[in-house]
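Worked example 3 (structure in, sequence out).
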């Protein structure tokens, strides 16, 4: 399995409140399988690639309405929700999201991270040029014409 394409969309601070989100990306393996919604984030130790994820939910104990774990009150009935209902990691941090796709070993994670961060650096350089057009937007157009992408 090899990474055959990486597409990057720079965030430029427009899509993030705290400035830590630097870009979004998609990653294609063997010209056959694509993973969307990668995020490039600037953390304490530098840039890293966050995999696609989903927000974790549970149900209101009173009305059984589906609620996000980050919510303090039920959106349907207004009941105050237990703030300790979310899973906490060993360091005490609340787990609010779960990866939907991710590497299962360090070798694969390094391959993905290296390819994505190299593409990000290249996209930053391209963005400095006049007439810059992000290739990430072209991905949606190409997939729309693909009869196998339904």
């Amino acid at each position: 399995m090899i990474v055959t394409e990486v597409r990057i969309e720079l965030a430029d601070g427009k899509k993030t409140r705290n400035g830590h989100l630097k870009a979004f990306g998609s990653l294609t393996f063997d010209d056959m399988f694509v993973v969307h919604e990668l995020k490039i984030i600037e953390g304490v130790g530098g840039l890293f690639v966050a995999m696609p994820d989903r927000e974790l939910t549970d149900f209101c104990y009173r009305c059984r309405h589906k609620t996000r774990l980050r919510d303090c009150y039920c959106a349907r009935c207004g009941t105050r929700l237990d703030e300790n209902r979310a899973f906490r990691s060993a360091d005490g941090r609340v787990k609010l999201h779960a990866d939907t796709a991710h590497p299962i070993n360090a070798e694969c994670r390094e391959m993905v991270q290296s390819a994505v961060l190299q593409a990000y650096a290249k996209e930053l350089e391209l963005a400095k040029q006049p007439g810059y057009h992000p290739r990430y937007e072209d991905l949606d157009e190409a997939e729309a014409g693909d009869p196998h992408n339904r």
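Notes: Residues 54-98 form one domain. The mean pLDDT is 87.
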